């Protein structure tokens, strides 16, 4: 009985879901692009990108054998993930590299799921991600940001129709894909002005000897590639 119930739950989450019309895919892509480009919308929405950015650092730090101390999210949409371990080496390089590419790569994973109509799986993964980050949050604003984001996700997941859930899942995927690009350009703009001297790109420069601009370019190429690949899956 328990095995059957587990199989039913697994099928409900990862089985084929309601297939949205092509217009929904295009409309959500357009909406995500507007959110990314319009500053008044981007500023509050950018916190979602920061959450995934810091989650990327945290996940790779754990996989690299580092000890995760905590995550802090700030009202200016910045964040920091603190881990302990060797201050150099492949583990530290991978940890520093993960942040700026995490949103677009997660968006690519969601596009793969949505390409096979697995809407529920996207929403479940979002919930698991938020809960995992909440456990490691070490400041009040960070808790507020996670809870507020989770409340929106909960409302859509439990109260909305299948059509709205599908549209929301597509919006999340497109926003992560496109929203992963803007912080890379913002980073380089800050670096040109002499700011962000301790950015991920500059940390990678100190760790590897390759210039910071090389790493900014790497972030941009990975995220652009994710957008192009995901667009092929979702639009064709």
From TrEMBL:
Pfam families: Peptidase_M50B
SUPFAM superfamilies referenced in this protein's UniProt entry, alphabetically: FtsH protease domain-like
Superkingdom of this protein's organism: Bacteria
InterPro entries associated with the record: Peptidase_M41-like (IPR037219), Peptidase_M50B-like (IPR049500)
Residues passing through the membrane, by range: 22-42, 93-113, 119-137, 144-161, 167-185, 213-235
Keywords: Membrane, Transmembrane, Transmembrane helix
Entry's Gene Ontology molecular function annotations: ATP binding; ATP-dependent peptidase activity; metalloendopeptidase activity
Signal sequence interval, chain numbering: none
Keyword Transmembrane helix: yes
Any one of the GO BP annotations: proteolysis
Record's protein name: Peptidase M50B-like protein
